[in-house]
Structure formats: C-alpha cells, structure tokens
Amino acid sequence: MSRPLRPNRRSVLKAGMGLALAGAGAYATGLSAATPAAAAQSGTPLCDNPGDSASAVGLGSGDLGIPYFREHDGSWGYVFGDSWRGMQQGVPYLGSPVMLNQASFDSSGATPISFTWAEPNGTAAQLFDYNHNADNGFGFEVSRIPNDCIEFGGRTYIQYTSVATWSPPAGYDGSLMSGVAYSDDYGATWTDFPYHWDGDTRGVNQSLYGMWSFAGIDPDGWLYIFSKRWNGTHHNTADAGAIQLLRIQPTDFHDGNFGAQQNWAYLNGSWQWTTAAPPSVILSGNNTGEFSVKLIGGAYCMSYFDVVLGTIFTRTASRPDAVWSNPNPQVTALTVPNLYGGYIHPGSAGANSLTLIVSQWDGTVSQPPYWVRQFDGINP
C-alpha cells in the first residue's frame, strides 16, 4: 500500500479579517466580523509521542480522532484519518479510516483520553476494504477520509469522503464521492451502502452532501444530520462555508433508505420540514473545514474550523432547526499553529464544558507533529 501524497493540504494559516459562518436568508442571524481569542490551554497530545497509549495499540501518528459513543457496551471510539504505524508518519502506512477505542472517558479532563484497544482485531489497521491511489470501481481515489461516526440500534456508521486529489484546481473540491459504510460487529468488518453522493470528479462539484456530522437521535425520534461541502484543501475558493440540515428516521437510515430524508428548507416564505424541496443553506461565511454538531446536555453544540481566521469556533442552539448563537472563538492558530478539525466529544461534561479533539500538522510528510490534541472545559 503506497503512502498518499498530500501536498499543501494543511498550509500555515494566518489570522485575518472575515465573517465566520454568517447567517443566511430569513432563518439565521447576521454576524459581525470576529477577532479570534487564544485558548487558555495548549491541549493534550493523544498520539505521535513515544510510549503513548495510541502506539501501544498500533497507531504511531494520525489525525482527526473523531469521537463517538459505543452504546452497546458504554465504551468510546475514535476514528482517525490517514494514519501511520510510526511516529511522525513513519512507515508503514496504515490507511484510512482507523479506529482506536477507550473503555471509559473522564469528561472532567483530569485524566486525558487513553486508548485501550483498536479495531478490527485489537491492533490499529484500516477499517474499509479498498485500495489507495487506485480505481475501486468508482474512479481514481487517493484515500477515504472519515467525517463522523455514530452507533445506534446495534449498527455503527461512518460517513466518509473519497478524495480524488488533494490539489484540485481553484473552485473545485477534489472529491470523487461521499458514502456511508456500516458495521454490524461494532467496527471489525464494514459494508458500503450502495448509494453514493457524487463529487467533483464524478460531475457534482461542491456538493453540500460531501461532509456530514451526525448530531444524534433527538428525543423526538429523528436522527438529525448537518452537511456541507467537502473542503480537503482548506483553501477551496468556491466554498463559502455553507451548511444545510436534514433529518431521517433511524430505521430508514439503517436500511439505507436515504430518499426518506426530510429537509429543513425555506419554502413559500417560511422555514419548514419538507420533502418538496432540497435543504436550504442555514449558515454560511468563511471557508469552513471540518465541523461537528452534537446534542450535549439538552443543547445542540457546533464546532467548526474557520479557514480564513485560522480558528475553531463554537455555537449553540436549543434545537437543530433553531437560530444558532453568535460564533465564539476557542482554539486558534496563534497558540496551535497549523490546526484543523475540532470535533466535539459526545461524552463532554455539559453544554458549557465541551471536550474538543483538534488536529495539528503543517502539511509536510514526516514533519512533526502529526497528531490530535484534547481540549477540555470549552464553553461554547
């Protein structure tokens, strides 16, 4: 398996003037330009350190570390993107996605995350069965990058983007497609749903179904999903940070009946849940990289990486389809250079005390660090 080439994916970010996810249309509230404030903490590295818990289960270095709750046994999973056995992207290349697990999580932050085993068989290895830098039946793809993971009803789901190139022309997203894979043995083996959302190189550039975040199953019984454009370069000139919202019954999602989704749309002069129109953009603004939405302590919390400002912001709302609060800067490139990601841990202590998992890499293969860091006590 060859090492993927990822030139300029995570270039150095500079803070600048801009509008971070400003409200769009009649639904969201307009915002003024924000000036990022540095986080008070530097974050605890969770991999790419000799002798750490990640290396003990076979992962030397990796990024993303998307957390999810393994409801069947109360443990926690963390899904990494491109990963290596050695420190600082040292060979061999493991692939993407890769999953590490943890028996219990300390939401106070007093005890940092420590990994205790990995999928599929206790030691870190690529979860999906596909070849890198090859045509696996859909067109040439470099890697499949996870965007979020959720488990419910005895089945685990990963939504991912297949990357066709890390260096697309200006205005193109560089994706092949997006899809959802599922596991009925909690991460050991995976099956791809047959339906895929075409990307740039399959004729649908800037699809708002490229990157998903599973907000969770609400007490009303619906699974709420936020989605946006894939932005692998983080400097996609056509990406205005647009985010849309949809919902689906968990049983339909389980069956891969994605056509049963309801869309949050501005239709006939009002916002409504409908199947008569596609989802409307609810938030937009600066170029937006990875994002995360989770139901924490009765509130919906959102984090996202603002590429223009080099900052991870957070927002909150009482409901997925309610107006979101103004963005609050949390972790910036001023204190964490070359950052990206920023995933909300679903086991966070509360809606005013989030744990964020933040990636850091300067875009140079074998250049340290290539890791994820844990930030606790984040008040959105």
Structure notes:
It is a single chain. The protein has two helices and 27 strands. It has 380 residues and is mostly beta strands. Strands 11, 12, 13, 14 and 15 form a five-stranded antiparallel beta sheet that branches. Strands 16-17-18-19-20 form a five-stranded antiparallel beta sheet. Strand 16 and strand 17 form a beta hairpin. It starts with 43 loop residues before the first strand and ends with a strand.
Pick out its properties.
380 residues; mainly beta; 5-stranded antiparallel β-sheet; 2 helices; 39% strand; globular; disordered N terminus
SSE layout:
Layout lengths: L43 E2 L7 H4 L4 E2 L3 E5 L4 E6 L2 E4 L3 E6 L2 E5 L14 E3 L14 E2 L4 E2 L1 E10 L2 E9 L11 E9 L7 E2 L4 E2 L12 E7 L5 E6 L14 E6 L1 H5 L7 E6 L2 E5 L13 E9 L2 E8 L4 E7 L10 E5 L6 E6 L9 E7 L10 E8 L2
Antiparallel strand pairs: 1-27, 2-5, 3-4, 4-7, 5-6, 7-8, 9-10, 11-12, 12-13, 13-14, 13-15, 16-17, 17-18, 18-19, 19-20, 21-22, 22-23, 23-24, 25-26, 26-27
Helical proportion, percent range: under 10%
**What overall form do the CA principal axes indicate?**
globular
Give the overall pLDDT as a whole number: 90
Residues in β-strands, percent: 35-45%
Structural class: mainly beta
Strand tally is 27
Radius of gyration, Cα only, in angstroms? Answer: 19 Å
The number of helical runs is 2
Unreliable segments of 5+ consecutive residues: 1-39
Output the helix-strand order: EHEEEEEEEEEEEEEEEEEHEEEEEEEEE
The major beta sheet can be summarized as: 5 strands, antiparallel
Instruction: Please give the alpha-carbon distance between the first and last residues.
Output: 41 Å
